[in-house]
Amino acid sequence: MPGAGIQMMTRLRVADNSGARVVGVIRVMRVRRRTGTVGDEVVCSIKEADPGAKKVKKGEVHRAVVVRGKVEDARRDGSTMRCSDWAAALLGPNGQPIGTRIRGVVSSNLDRSKYMKIMSLCRVII
Amino acid sequence: MYVILNNLTIIANIDSMNFSTSISPKIIENIEKQYAKSDLPSLSIGDTVKVYLLIKEGNKERVQVNQGVIIAKNNSQLTSTITVRSNLQGVGVERVYLVHSPLIKNIEVLRRSKVRRAKLYYLRGLSGKATRLKQRFN
């Protein structure tokens, strides 16, 4: 169950309603790091999208933030969380989420100063 | 040299101890006893529990409740942990809690189950009705 994290070619489920379903990671935006974890921003391409989606199309390159993952996501009190899948929310060019709703659980370890909008859109923050 | 806790209690007089033998484990146990909770309910594998966690968001404090099934338990005195699995919004979420953490306000056992395993990792591959556990009444 514990894994190394996400890297290039990893498929992430899309947690928002932008129209995309699955994205493939191109690059984890961390300096000198090969694997990414929850809270990291990634550059990804859309591998699967809803046919009638207006905001995104298959093949487009977007940035996204990983909102939950299968690896242990540590909390400051020593507790950890892990989810059954890897999921990300797509971001627009200004860093704001493209979607208007977030599906599923979002980790509370996301940087609130950057991703306040995502935290406010989701229903369950663990 | 003395080992003192809270400036009040002298736990051990290190000068008088013979360090050629190993240090008594009682020293660590006595220190840990100050922080361990004495009012924890008995937690077993398969119990459905509600964990009341204190969350601090800036200045505000609130209590978040998490309900799930204990699928693993690790006994190690102060750092004992339980792994609680629940299904939230269609996502399987496992949280590992340190049961003696002061941020855990309460652990409430809702239901006990009859399980024949020490760890219920097989539940990760199941969903819905297949994850039901038989209730235990003792």
From TrEMBL, chain A:
**Lineage, uppermost ranks:** Eukaryota, Rhodophyta, Bangiophyceae, Porphyridiales, Porphyridiaceae
Protein family: Belongs to the universal ribosomal protein uL14 family.
Q: Which organism is it from?
A: Porphyridium purpureum (Red alga)
Ribosomal protein among the record's keywords?
yes
| Annotated keywords | Ribonucleoprotein, Ribosomal protein
Q: Which Pfam families match?
A: Ribosomal_L14
Which InterPro entries does the UniProt entry name for this protein?
Answer: Ribosomal_uL14 (IPR000218), Ribosomal_uL14_bac-type (IPR005745), Ribosomal_uL14_sf (IPR036853)
Q: Which GO terms describe its cellular component?
A: mitochondrial large ribosomal subunit
One biological process term from GO is: translation
Q: Which GO terms describe its molecular function?
A: large ribosomal subunit rRNA binding; structural constituent of ribosome
What is the protein named?
Answer: 50S ribosomal protein L14
UniProtKB/TrEMBL annotation, chain B:
Q: Name one GO biological process term.
A: translation
Q: Could you confirm whether the keyword Ribonucleoprotein appears in this record?
A: yes
GO molecular function terms listed in the Swiss-Prot or TrEMBL record: structural constituent of ribosome
Pfam families with a match to the protein in the record: Ribosomal_L19 (PF01245)
The UniProt entry's GO CC annotations, sorted and at most eight, read:
mitochondrial large ribosomal subunit
Which terms are listed as keywords in the entry?
A: Plastid, Ribonucleoprotein, Ribosomal protein
Top-level taxonomic group: Eukaryota
Answer whether the UniProt record assigns the keyword Ribonucleoprotein to this protein: yes
In terms of PANTHER family, this protein maps to: LARGE RIBOSOMAL SUBUNIT PROTEIN BL19M, RIBOSOMAL PROTEIN L19
Q: Which family does it belong to?
A: Belongs to the bacterial ribosomal protein bL19 family.
Name of the protein:
50S ribosomal protein L19
Q: Origin organism of this chain? A: Porphyridium purpureum
